[in-house]
Fold this protein.
Amino acid sequence: MTHVVRAHDFSLQYPYADQPTLRHLSLHLQPGERVLLLGPSGSGKSSLALCFNGLIPHSVEADVRGSMQVFGQETTRLDPARLACRVGMVFQDPESRFCTLTVEDESAFGLENLGMARHEMARRIDEALQQVAMSGKRGARLDRLSGGMKQRVALAAALAMEPDLLILDEATSNLDPAGAADLFALVQRIARANPHRAFLMIEHRLDALINLISRAWVLGEDGRLIYDAPPRSLFLQHRDALAELGVWQPTVTSLAQTLQEAGVASPLPWLTLDEALAWLRQAPQAWETAAAWAQPAGGAAVAAHGIPVLELEHVSYAYPANAVAVRDVNLVVRRGEVLAVVGSNGAGKSTLAHLMIGLIYPQQGVVRVLGRDSAHTPLSTLAGLGGFVFQNPEHQFVTDCVFDEIALGMRAEGVDEETIRQRTRTLLRQLHLADKETANPFTLSQGQKRRLSVATMLTGTRHILILDEPTFGQDAHNSQELASMLRQLNGAGVTVILITHDMELVWSLAQRVAVMADGRLLKVDTPMAIFANRDLLRQARLQPPARAVVAYALRAMAANAARFPLW
C-alpha cells in the first residue's frame, strides 16, 4: 500500500535562519489515519504541514534535505498545483489563502482551476457549504465576514476539492465552541464516509477531538520528532515530559494528576470527560479534591459600587450593506474587573470591543471611557487610557523589528532608552521571545506573533486592556504565562476584557461573562451561573469547559448522596 506521507531523515532550514526548523524527521502516514500533530509554539508544526502539500520548498523558500514523499513521489519534484488535487489544507489564518471576493467564488476557485464541469462543480460547492453551515452566505463578501466565518469558508474550499489528505492547521482557532464541536463531528462523518481519507490535525482543543485520533506525533523545541504513539499510551507514558514541554493535553489528565498528588488513587490517563465522570461517581473520597480542581479561578466579582471605566448606553452599530453588528447594548465595566465577552461567530463581539476602545464610534447611543464620550475624545487620548490586542496580530505591526515593535509606544511617550531597553527585554523573556529580538515580526510563527502583539500593549500604564482571542496559536506554557501576566495586571488595578472562544480561559480568569448573540447582549453574570444555563448556552452556541462540567456533575453527585455542598 502506498503511504500518504513518508519522510526519512528530513530536515528543513529557512534562509537566514541560524538553525533548522525541522531536524532529521522519519515518519509515515497511512490512508485512513487521523494523526494529531503536537508541539510547543515555534516547534515547526505548520512548517511540516506545508511540506506535505509542496508549498515548501516550491512556494516558500527553504533548504530541505532528506526524503519527503507524498503519495509515493518526492515533493521536491512535484508541482504544488498537482498536489492540490490530493492534499487539502486549512491554514491558521484563513485570509492567507483567499483568492476571490465572495463565499461562493472562493469555494469554486480550486475547482475552476481544474477545469471541472459546471454541474459537478455546483454539486461539490453545495455539499461543502452545507457541511460547514455557510449555505446561506453564498453571495457574502469575504471581507465582511467574522474570523470564524472566514475559517468555515476556507474549510469549504478545501472540502470541495475532495482531497485524499486533509490538513487542519488550528482550523478551529476562530470558531465558536459549538462550531468547533461541529467541525470535529464533520471530520468524524467524513472519515466514516471515506475510510481511506487521511487527516493531519494541528490542534489544541483536545477535549472534543481526542476520540477522533488514531495516532499522535510530538515535535520538540528543536524540531525533532520525539514521540509517535497512540494517544492513550502517549499521555500515559509521557505525561510529565509533555507538560514540561508545554504541549496541550486533555483537560481531565490534569484532574487525574491532581488526585494522585493528593494521595487519591485514580486511573491514568483519562482522555475524555465521560471516563473521568464515570470513575468519580464511584469515588466519593475524591469529590472534595476534584471540586477544588474544578472551581472557577476568577475570584469574587467586582463590587457593584466600583468605579466604572467603561459605560455603554443603548449602543448600536451596523456596517455598510450589512446586518446590524451591535444592537442596543447596555453594559458597565468597573475598575479592576476581568470581563469575558463570549458568543458565536458573528455575534458582534469584536465590533463591541472596537466600540469600547474608540476604534469605531456608535451610530446610536454613547460609549464612555473613564467618563469621556469616545465620539468626542481624540483617539490619542483614548489610546493612553486603554490598549487593544487585535484578533489578527499582523494588523497592528508597524515596524520591521521585534524589539522596535515593543519599544514603539514607550518611545512615543518619551521614555528614556535605558528604561525602554530594560522593559522590552524583560517582556521578551517573559513571553519567550528573547531569541527573536532582531527578527522581523512578520517572520514569526502565529503563536509568536500573538505574544508579540500582547507585549506591545503591556508597556504603558493603561487602565483598560482588551484582548481579542489572546490564546490563539499558543502552546500550554505560553497560555499559562499569558494568563499569569493578565492576573498580575488585574491585581495592579488594570481592567481586563477578553474576547474569546476559549472557555477554559473564561472559567479560569473571568469574574464576569457577557454573552452575545445576533448583536445583542443576552446576559452578564458569573462563569458559574453562565455555564449552568443550558438554554443560554444553546442560544449563544457555547459549550461549558471541562472544569465546569466536572464542577456541576460533582454538585449533583453530592446532592444525590445527601452530602453537604462542596462549595
Q: What stands out?
A: Residues 292 and 566 are 9 Å apart (CA to CA). The chain is about 40% helix and 20% strand.
